[in-house]
Design goal:
single chain, 284 residues, alpha+beta, 2,3-Dihydroxybiphenyl 1,2-Dioxygenase, domain 1, nine-stranded mixed β-sheet, eight-stranded mixed β-sheet, 19% helix, iron
Length: 284
């Protein structure tokens, strides 16, 4: 398969300082500020690579780009042709974008929702001043949209993601490697990122992040719990851009013999929502 993993997410944000405070004080994630064009972009390190989340100063909060790591230049060319054949206009990233991403090659297209999706070859290692507080990388994101069918066609038929499982009436989980899912697609009236997940090494790392969130007054939007489908233990905070950050660990891997199925209820235990859950399990 050409796409190997979720590489990075770029966000337009109205309050970069609030984001860096959340990342640093509560999650222990180092942030480096670099010049990009006329702006200063904040790059968040979650693991040994250059960055996983980029924060672009903006007058609105919205996705800037969603970046996937591709196995090789040959696979990048193959996927680019599949996208072109499916009617997507594929463009090369600029030299400045390639350098910022830490990539060797970069291409991008616009998905049916209007978001910029990037395919990158290569990842640059980072230099870190201090230890991380348990983060091990970028896990997954959930994209909600009224164009669920078009997004499923893109990810499943064109980009060759595999359906892992689903829950009626409109929530689907897809993988591009053995990890249970790297993206989930949901039906909604308006497009948005519902949440972005940061992987942690252990339940103790998640618990310590939970304690820091409580101590720092960070709004916990979904309480500690265990998901039914991927078995991950996590909690969620409301980030300064208004959507959720999931802090989790322990998600399962699946093999080639996995059979997609409706997993029924959303959680084994916990995960109580502070606000209404748009993806609540249907009542029996």
């Amino acid at each position: 398969m050409g796409i190997r993993k979720l590489g990075y997410v770029g966000l337009n944000v109205t309050d970069v300082d609030a984001w860096t405070d959340l990342l640093g004080r509560t999650l222990g994630i180092g942030v480096t500020r670099v010049k990009f064009g006329t702006d200063e972009v904040a790059l968040a390190e979650l693991d040994e690579f250059k960055y996983r989340v980029a924060l672009y100063p903006s007058t609105q909060d919205s996705p800037h780009e969603l970046g996937w790591i591709v196995d090789s230049p040959r696979e990048l060319d193959r996927l680019s042709q599949r996208l072109t054949d499916a009617g997507f206009a594929v463009e090369d990233g600029s030299p400045e974008e390639v350098e910022l991403r830490g990539a060797t090659r970069l291409r991008w297209f616009t998905d049916p929702v209007g978001y910029r999706v990037e395919l990158a070859v290569g990842e640059a290692k980072a230099r870190r001043d201090g230890p991380l507080h348990g983060t091990t990388g970028l896990g997954h994101f959930v994209l909600a949209s009224p164009k669920l069918d078009e997004l499923r066609e893109l990810y499943e038929s064109v980009l060759e993601f595999k359906l892992t499982d689903y829950r009626a009436p409109g929530l689907f989980f897809f993988r591009c490697n053995p990890t249970h899912h790297s993206i989930a697609l949901a039906k909604a009236d308006a497009p948005s990122i519902h949440h972005l997940e940061f992987e942690h090494g252990s339940i103790d790392d998640v618990g310590r992040a939970y304690d820091r969130a409580k101590s720092n007054g960070v709004p916990i939007s979904i309480s500690l719990g265990r998901h039914m489908n991927d078995k991950a233990i996590s909690f969620y905070v409301r980030n300064p851009s208004g959507f959720h950050l999931e802090i989790g660990c322990g998600g399962i891997d699946v093999g080639e013999d996995w059979t997609p199925h409706d997993f029924g209820v959303s959680d084994v235990w916990g995960h109580h929502h502070a606000d209404a859950n748009p993806f609540a399990s249907p009542k029996s």
